[in-house]
Amino acid sequence: MKTTKNAKVVAACLVAVVSGLSIWTVSGAMATGQQGAKLDTELAVARAATAKYVTDLGLAKKNGYMIITKMIPTMGYHFMNPGVKGFDIKKPPILVYEHGAGGWQLGAIEWVFPKMPAKPPLPGARYGSFGAGCHYADGTFVPAGAQTACPAKAPGSGAKFTFWHPRLVTMHVWLWYPNPNGIFASINPRVAAPFNQG
């Protein structure tokens, strides 16, 4: 009887934690009303769709995600699936991973847009930006205003050039790693460079 009671308490705590995480707004406060309910539903769908990648970077790579940046302080390592287009909460084009002694952990999912969306894809969405630049097969990123300015190979490593992009509008969703700045914040002060090694 004691074991059953403890199991129920643990289950109730997990439900409370998941529910609380799913309705954080940009300021870290709770969303309320219809907007909060819609965000809650959308983020639950995103969690169900991306749970398979939380500690399995190998599966993400097998499913088409490739490294596009090495460790960016207060963010992580970015992996993009070039086959994912548009906004679909179940298919984020970018997975942002953290790396430490315990291995790889998915922290955030991300979408990029050529300009600010006319209508927020998610209630309360907040945006960041990422400068124009060149990407290479090993995750090297070189800022560049035009593709013609991209070195043929990655400086230092000689990795193959993969693509260039103009300045982009970004939308991070810190779905799997807590962010005191809010679920939509671009940077996460809990993601420190010493945590991300490798």
How would the blueprint of this fold be written?
Blueprint: H1 2-22, H2 33-50, H3 57-62, E1 66-72, E2 76-80, E3 94-100, E4 103-113, E5 128-130, E6 133-136, E7 141-143, E8 161-165, E9 168-173
Antiparallel strand pairs: 1-2, 2-3, 3-4, 4-9, 5-9, 6-7, 6-8
Describe this entry's structure for a reader:
This protein is an alpha+beta fold. It has a domain at 2-131 and 167-173. It has 3 helices and 9 strands. The chain has helices at 2-22, 33-50, 57-62; strands spanning 66-72, 76-80, 94-100, 103-113, 128-130, 133-136, 141-143, 161-165, 168-173. It has a 6-stranded antiparallel β-sheet. Strand 1 (66-72) and strand 2 form a beta hairpin. The chain starts with a helix and ends in a 25-residue tail after the last strand.
Please tag this protein with its features.
single chain; alpha+beta; 23% helix; disordered C terminus
Question: How do you describe this structure in short?
Answer:
23% of the residues lie in helices and 26% in strands.
